[in-house]
Each structure stands twice: as C-alpha cells, then as structure tokens.
Amino acid sequence: MTATSDDDPIDGDHPFGGADPLDEDLLYELTEARGVPGYEDRVREIVRREFADAVDRVRTDAMGNVVGTIEGGSDYAVAVAAHMDEIGFMVRYVDDEGFVQVDALGGFDPRVLRAQRVTVHGEEDLTGVIGSVPPHTLTDEQREADDEVSDVFIDLGRDADAVEELVSVGDLVTLDQTTTRMGDCVTGKALDDRVCLFAMLEAARRIDDPDATIHFAATVQEEVGLRGAHALGVDVDPDLAIALDVTVANDVPQIGEAADAVTSLGEGAAIKLKDSSVITSPKVHRRLTAVAESNDIDHQHEVLPAGGTDTAGFQTPGGAKPVGAISIPTRYLHTVTETADVRDVAATIDLLTAFLESETGKHDYTL
Questions:
Q1: 3-state secondary structure of 310
Q2: Is 121 among the annotated ligand-binding positions?
Q3: Does 334 appear as a known binding residue?
Q4: Which residues does the record give as Zn(2+) 1 binding sites (predicted)?
Q5: Would you name the residues annotated as active-site residues?
Q6: How far apart are CA 125 and CA 254, in angstroms?
Q7: Contact at 8 Å (CB) between 4 and 17?
Q8: Is pLDDT of 12 > 80?
Q9: In this predicted model, what pLDDT tens digit does every residue of 135-160 receive, in sequence order?
Q10: By the number of CB atoms within 10 A of the CB, which of 12, 48, 79, 306 ranks highest?
Q11: What is the DSSP secondary-structure string of 320-342?
C-alpha cells in the first residue's frame, strides 16, 4: 500500500476508505470522549446510540455496563466485552493558592504527566496544565527524585477564589488530546480501550441472524480492577466470553530484544495466549487462530508479561467458563499519544465477526 500524507484523502486500500470502510468519525468520537472509571456517561450515550440499530435489545445495569444483545437461533450465549473507561484522575485537594491535587483513577506512569494539558470537569469544563518546574531551577535533590502521581499539581490559570467557586473535591480530570491520522495509524488518547469498543460496535453492525445469542458488553471500571466484567460474568452468565483490549506494541527503538516487543503494528489482530490476569482457554485461542487462517486474516499471537483485561473478569465469577481474547497492538499505552495501525483494527473486526458468525454452540471447549 502507498502511504499518504496526513493532508491527503485516505487511499482507497486504506481500511478507513476501502471496499468495506470503517467509520472514521465514530472512532474519533469514541476516543475523544471523556469517561474515567465509574463516570463513563459520555461514552455510554454513544454506545447506546450505536446499538440502537445494530442489536435486538439494549440494557444498562446498576454499575453502568451496557449490553446490546443479538438473539441467536439457540440458547447458547457468547459475551463480547470491551471497556468504556479511560485512565484519569479525581480531585482530592485544592490548596490555598488555587492549585489542584489529584488521585489517580487507573495506572499512570508519572514520567509522562509533566506539562500535559488536562480538563477539570468542575462546575464547567476547565482547561488546566500539569505544572512542571523548569530545568533551570531544579535542585540536585529534585533532579534525582522519582516522579509520583501524588506530586502532580494542576494549574488552572485562575486565582484561588475563582478555583474555589468552580472546582470541588471529587471532580474528575481527564487528559486533553485529539485523535488524528498518522500515516497508516491513528494516534490520540484513550485508544485503550475505545479502539476495541469501536471494533465491537462495527462487528455488531455486520452480524445478522447468528446461530448463537451474542451479548456485546461495553464494560465499566476495567482500569481499576475489571469490576464491570466481574459483575457481568454473573449477570450475563455466558457459555463463552471473548474480550477485546489493546496490548503492548513495543516495536520501537528503545526495546532491545524482539521478544520484548510483545506485538508489532501492522502484523494483524493479536490473539491472546496469556497476560498476568488470565491464561486463555487453549481450545478457544486455537479456534480463533484457525478462523483467522481460513479467512486469510492477518494475525499474531500475544504473550503479555504484565497487565490484565476483562477476559479474566468473565472466566470464573459465574463458574468456570471458556474465554478468549483479541487484542489490538498499540504503542505508547497509557499516554495521550497511544498509536494503533488501522489495518490491525480492521483485522480485529474481521476476525471477531468471522468467529462469531461461525459459533454454533457445538464447539467443545472443555479440557
């Protein structure tokens, strides 16, 4: 494929503009929406809207999980999960000078927070910046100190009285970044896990009259312990569960060993074998691989040393269940420049769709 510049129309072979084009506007809307764990409201409304014409029924539970169900020809049920929440912060203190201190909602690398722009969702949405002491005035002790989230302070450019009127303890804070195309990739905040939420919604639109009943689940609070998936594992109680999430793509110059890359951009959908929260069911990941091979879908296998996904949330809460997972390789995870190749996104949609359409309920996943 010939690369195009960021200002040129998308090439016809590009997944956004090919024979089966992806909805670029929806992907951008999802990734730019704000929704930290427990407060996924804005994302939830998009999901409900998109489910309206794609599934037979939609329900929302007390935690905020949204489940769109396509009724199948049998009682056999498959759950597909992708989480709505993104990492963010909650205001824990406003000091006498009007600077805001926060508590993390999800796992941050404090090194990437310096000088970031944020939005504080107070009485109104307020632009702020995470302050950073200029290198000219750093002491030796400050230069050697490790960054901590607890040291983060947000400057709202207002005096203390104005901040007091607009910001309260418990207000939410999200990182501020737009989504844009970059060659064959898209980059922005919250691709974790909105790019997989997008893939799930696209698959739901493509599937019609399946043999199995399919519950497409947009889950909450994944970033703080897979909490929404644990609840749905009991409430939905599927016979089989497939989770969608991003995974590490460390295919960049700083990584010495190729094995440490985990996955590579442009090599296709990643079929998960394990992460630190789950070992996927062998018969499930083998069938995912067979479906990819028989449909000529680009794919790779993923062994993730650290990190967990909703896959684990469905494996045991309602009793032992077969589980599998499809991941989208993504560079620079948990930053505002998360980057994924749209060809891998398209491969993930194709694989998920083909797998679900071929799920009859007669495959034996017992060991």
A1: helix
A2: no
A3: yes
A4: 83, 192, 245
A5: 222
A6: 37
A7: no
A8: no
A9: 666 666 666 666 677 788 999 999 99
A10: 79
A11: ---EEEEEEEEBSTTSTTEEEEH
